[in-house]
Amino acid sequence: MVRSAAVALSILAAGPSAAQDDTCRLALLLGLDVSASVDAAEYRLQQDGLIAALLSPEVQRAFLEGPGPVALAVYEWSGRFQQDMLADWTMINSQADLLSVAERISQGSRRSTDFPTALGYAIGFAAQTFAEAPPCLFQTLDISGDGQNNDGFPPAAAYEHFPLADVTVNGLAIGGAQREIALYYEMEVIQGPGAFVEYASNHADFETAMRRKLERELRAMIVGDAEPEQLLHR
């Protein structure tokens, strides 16, 4: 990754003329918790909230005004073997591309309702999904949830055994039943320089928190935003 990050740094340092429009700057994977702790109403708030966040003017600008496009994919997760793609990798070059992803999310149907929270497996699934992503300068997993891992191996084991060292993992912790969830995500889930946790006080706050999170993740990276040493170790 040091070599690839150095290449990315040289492209960014050279300015817009070197960062061609067809160079993907980020592969962004969104993972949504649909475990048993998420009831039907909360699931709808997540689904509608994600669509609204993706189509908000601020997030659209963050997608479309950066140096090169973003590759986007979305999946749902719950138990050990319950991970389902809502939208496969799509290169976001226009508003129409975002609308297409939003439409696929809106047409998705929840496939499981009574499985526990296998967060380690959800992260491991992300590693497999990134292996199928278009080539991009950086990779980020944006994983949300309202509970701690209670089934299968923990996030730490996923990081140990899956090829995730070069993936930045951010969290969206949803409060309600477990107010300490934000701390859990900070201590056990996120990884990588600059990784962060966004907090939603409940599922009704999911849209606002997701919008804030996407804006932050999609902020165009320029040399002034990060020191070279940070870039080389992302």
Estimate the mean pLDDT confidence: 86
Strand order of the largest sheet: 3-2-1-4-5-6
The tally of strands reads 6
Please estimate the helix content: 40-55%
Helical stretch count?
A: 9
Q: Choose one word for the global shape.
A: globular
Q: Calculate Rg over CA atoms.
A: 17 Å
CATH architecture descriptor: 3-Layer(aba) Sandwich
| Proportion of residues in β-strands | 15-25%
The level 1 CATH classification is Alpha Beta
The profile of the biggest β sheet is: 6 strands, mixed
Unreliable runs: 1-19, 222-234
SSE arrangement, N to C: HEHHEEHHEHEHEHH
Distance between the termini: 8 Å
Q: Return the CATH topology.
A: Rossmann fold
Give the domain tally: 1
What's the helix and strand layout?
Layout: H1 2-14, E1 26-33, H2 40-55, H3 57-64, E2 70-77, E3 83-92, H4 95-107, H5 119-130, E4 138-145, H6 155-161, E5 167-174, H7 181-189, E6 197-200, H8 206-218, H9 228-232
Parallel strand pairs: 1-2, 1-4, 4-5, 5-6
Antiparallel strand pairs: 2-3
Helix pairs in contact: 2-4, 2-8, 3-8, 5-6
Verbal overview:
By secondary structure, the chain is α/β, with parallel strands linked by helices. The protein has a single domain, classed as 3-Layer(aba) Sandwich (Rossmann fold). Helices cover 41% and strands 20% of the residues. It contains 9 helices and 6 strands. It has a 6-stranded mixed beta sheet with strand order 3-2-1-4-5-6, with helices on both faces. The longest helix has 16 residues, at 40-55.
